[in-house]
Sequence to fold (445 residues):
Amino acid sequence: MAVQFEVKVLEHCRVSPPPNSVPTTSLPLTFFDIPWLLCRPMQRILLYEFGCSTAQFVTDVLPQLKHSLSLALQLFFPLSAAECGGVFSDLLRGGLRDAKEIHPLVPPIPIPPSRILNESLLELTPLLALQVTLFPNMGICVGIQFNHVVADGMACTYFLKTWASLFQSRSGLSCIDEVLPVVDRGVIKDTDRIEDVLLNQWRGWGSPRWKDNAATVGLLEEKVRATFVLTRGDIEKLKNWVSGKCISAKHTKPVHISSFVVACAFTWVCVIKSQDKITNDSFGDEDLCHFSFVADCRNRKEISVPSTYFGNCLAICFVSVKRGLFRGEDSIALAADAIGRRVQELESGVLVGAEKWLLQWNEVSETGDLLTVAGSPRLALYETDFGWGRPRLVEMVQIDASGAMYLTEARNEKGGVEVGLARSRAQLEAFSSIFQLGKDQLQQC
Fold:
């Protein structure tokens, strides 16, 4: 049964950097930004157990949240605070959950009307909305909606952790002892004029479909979501099993096997098998299944972008495998080998084929059999501490509509991975049983 939240807005305000603390400027798009013009905003919630009354929240916590946010914005742009009458523990329960139940915890980004400027149609798009929801005497939820065109997940997480540090310290910017964020778009060099190529391709796509709110709400109907865990032991067994299969089949070790590769391969195979189960194998063996992930391009020699760059700096990668290969005993090893080879290819140049990112995205999206990855264990979202301890739960909400899988580090075990999915109840139940069966079989290896 879905949790019925009643969210009462306590305050809605705009938070800006301190007056005269930042210059009036505009940032140009880089070729890394253009693909994300087509994508939904990132949506996250972080739930903390914290015994805080409404009175304490309004008089102490909320003012400090706004002050520390203002300071964080000085470094790196509406914040709403709400009180929720829902049962906090229901959000932490395991199993399948109605996808719509957590959406009241994510602030909307209002889409302002377009206007004409210099005889051209100008679309205004807000970049950031934050919502802090209080479950009186139980916990606090921090919700964020962030326009992907301004920055990627790594940069967004950097911003969130900076805000958390400023709130926890209550000592102003003096607590920020790390290297400050780099916002200069000039660090992105485009010697091959990739931006021009991608812009021309983007113009042919039209307005992103996610801006149709009615369509987005419709995507949530009949959806359920769940989080699955691969323990550190599961990951190590997967690595060993995949390596053994590759050696026996090819007499050579796989080119690249990592926690990310095997977690993605295992999940991808389970998704495909769950599709087959609920459709009675109606797909053909020759049908292609596509998988897409991104690779962080910071700190790579060929483009020399610093790790603290605040913007988008992701290469988009695609892998395609015939569905029939997922129906054999070695499907996970085959998927891992395919993903690992694509990861290894990045060593030859992260920007190789960058001019085709949008064309490839369009091509694989049209097949309807594309699984993408949101998030990464490297973001370490469970280390976002406002002084209330580590989050009890981290969710990436946009997958309810996008159909992506998300990855985060496991909360309770170093080296483990959490996998989030939203699907129809029938498919997610099938996925859950296949996922657990796969884990059980690993224990016998």
